């Protein structure tokens, strides 16, 4: 494993190793113990999209591990003035030990990975968000003490996070139910890949029915970055596809409520759901740091 571009790049063994390492890193950080295995190593962070959790967690993560992170706004480097992705990848490989990229097009990451001689990590694209899902799995493991044999219900847009969630559920052995309005289903190629990986996948437009006996309820914004022109239409189309107290009531008594943030209370999730006793949303956000540090150690230090 050289890169992490798709959730499908990971095997079940890889995921287990990353989660175990992340849990160890998290515990040692709480004790003030230092793991500086990336001393004298540098990470380039290419950002075409704005970010809170991704940028801060990767930058802090590299610092914690003894390394250095360089923020590269796409408009400030030559890629923003027409230099090819391929040339950028080859040049940065001469300076850095790894690259993360948060990009509009998944194809940019594919080109970076194919042309870089150093690890490339998907920090979000229009198709996937694997780093988010590793943090999610870490959170699920902390609360459920397992990552398999559960019912995972996604409510909302069949977007990039949903694509990665479907792949992850297939790999680890969770049933996945995707609940979305007609016309907003996940990309067919990810549906096919999920089934090829052995996933048990259902796609429906009936939230209350889908939420019955759920172990995990998960949502994301209805209007993602790049979809702003469709905002008015999307808000109408997604009405009724909200995680709220009604869905929680028909789920399992110990259901956990998840959201990858930023959240819009009153739209995709009610205030009572995100701020209530079933919510693990801010543990999720914290776990971005620990899961990504584990990925960095695995790819940059060979751990």
TrEMBL record:
It is an enzyme of class 2 (transferase). It holds the Pfam family OTCace. GO terms for cellular component: cytoplasm. GO terms for biological process: citrulline biosynthetic process; L-arginine biosynthetic process via ornithine; regulation of DNA-templated transcription. The keyword Cytoplasm applies. Its EC number is 2.1.3.3. Residues 1-21 form the HTH merR-type domain. GO terms for molecular function: amino acid binding; DNA binding; ornithine carbamoyltransferase activity. Gene3D superfamilies: Aspartate/ornithine carbamoyltransferase. Carbamoyl phosphate binds at residues 51-54, 78, 102, 129-132, 260-261, 288. HAMAP family: OTCase. Belongs to the aspartate/ornithine carbamoyltransferase superfamily. OTCase family. NCBIfam families: orni_carb_tr (TIGR00658), PRK00779.1 (NF001986). This is Ornithine carbamoyltransferase. The gene is argF.
